Amino acid sequence: MAVAIFNSPLGGEYHENRRMEGKQPAGRRRVFVQTKTGCVLRTEVDRGDNAHTVKRRLQIALKVPTEESCLTFGDMVLSNDLSPVHNDSPLLLTRNIGGPTF
Fold first, then answer.
1. What is the pTM of this model?
2. Source organism's superkingdom (predicted)?
3. 45-66, pLDDT tens digit by residue?
4. In whole angstroms, how far apart are CA 85 and each of 22, 39, 82, 95?
5. DSSP run (H or E) holding 65
6. What is the dihedral angle through the alpha carbons of 84, 65, 48, 74, rounded to the nearest 10 degrees?
């Protein structure tokens, strides 16, 4: 399984100091997005981000239009709100029904 870590455009960059080493800034969560082909991408989401924002970032990295993709967390389709998603949560990115898998 391939894992990619993007500093940009998927994740925002921030500067850590020794006290913050290994910790996320307040309101920022790290999530792992897996595609149907097994590719895993790590990204960070801010408190103000929504599912469309995350799909837009993935569109840049994977060249998949946001209107053709679906982001799920467990058995829940994330249409907008990311509040159920916690730090280190796994998300699944799929094509909408009728489109080919990627």
1. 0.68
2. Eukaryota
3. 998 899 999 999 888 888 888 8
4. 19, 20, 5, 20
5. none
6. 10
